[in-house]
Amino acid sequence: MTDIGWGPVLSESEGYGRLGDNSDDYTLLTHQDIDKLARAGYKPHQHASHGMIFFRKQNKLWDLYEQKGFAMMQMRFDGTLGFPGGLMDEGEAPIQCLNRELHEEIGLDLTKHAFSDDERIASYLHEGKNLVLHFYLKEVSAEEFFALETNTLHAPEYGIETLGIIRVPLFTMGDGLRGFPAFLTNHFAGNARSELITGLMAAKLFTQEDMEKAIKAYKDFIKNRSLIENMLE
Ligand SMILES: O=c1[nH]cnc2c1ncn2[C@H]1C[C@H](O)[C@@H](COP(=O)(O)OP(=O)(O)O)O1
């Protein structure tokens, strides 16, 4: 087999992952938009699919904090946080792309846990990047979640694209910041932060009020951090 090398292939997708996206850069697409894209063979855009696997469990963590369960994310090769998933290959549909990528990145057993098309909860267009992002959500039991996590160590891309699977802390500590709001202050790939918020709301793990409180705590922290950094300059 001729080795084509990854250089030319990767350089084409370099721009998609650049940091600095805002949530306003992404437009939420309707079902009609998606049907139209499918009829056009998903062209002329590049597409990517990512999925959130979670379990719900009402728990009092350390007898103190209300924990809602866990959601799975990953530390990516580029140092940002994201969901398992990736770019669609020629001839694929978004759901095929998702299942292929989840097998490669987290070793998902597709005979047991393949995602289905009706688990897509949102799709977004980034016009500037000509990129459509499809986002899927899957609920599993706690036991299945732990087994899936263990299996990630044997995934073909573990240690290459996926540097580690992480659990999103779904609780807030007494200072109102540590836990989920502090988690939101990390660097995320693409619109993964918005997807996380959307996914947790769609799963009804957060009430509107709890989510607004968490987002406010995270944004206040970022604002205060920038103020302090500016003062120190
Ligand atoms: O979790 C994510 N949510 C939304 N957008 C994401 C996420 N992870 C990455 N991205 C963006 C930015 C990336 O460059 C493109 C392509 O995804 P990626 O997973 O890097 O694709 P490959 O593994 O290189 O095929 O989507």
TrEMBL record:
Molecular function as annotated in GO: 5'-(N(7)-methylguanosine 5'-triphospho)-[mRNA] hydrolase activity; IDP phosphatase activity; phosphodiesterase decapping endonuclease activity; snoRNA binding
EC class name: hydrolase
Ranges of residues in domain Nudix hydrolase: 44-228
Keywords carried by this UniProt record: Hydrolase, Nucleotide metabolism, Nucleus, RNA-binding
One Pfam family matching this protein: Nudt16-like
Cofactor: Co(2+)
Reactions this protein catalyses: dIDP + H2O = dIMP + phosphate + H(+); IDP + H2O = IMP + phosphate + H(+); a 5'-end (N(7)-methyl 5'-triphosphoguanosine)-ribonucleoside in mRNA + H2O = N(7)-methyl-GDP + a 5'-end phospho-ribonucleoside in mRNA + 2 H(+)
Coarse class of the protein's main subcellular location: nucleus
Keyword Transport: no
EC identifiers of the protein: 3.6.1.64
GO terms under biological process: mRNA catabolic process; nucleotide metabolic process; sno(s)RNA catabolic process
One cellular component (GO) term of this entry: nucleolus
InterPro entries per record: NUDIX_hydrolase-like_dom_sf, NUDIX_hydrolase_CS, NUDIX_hydrolase_dom, NudT16
Subcellular location: Nucleus, Nucleolus; Nucleus, Nucleoplasm
Family under the similarity heading: Belongs to the Nudix hydrolase family. NUDT16 subfamily.
Record protein name field: U8 snoRNA-decapping enzyme
The species this protein was found in: Elysia crispata (lettuce slug)
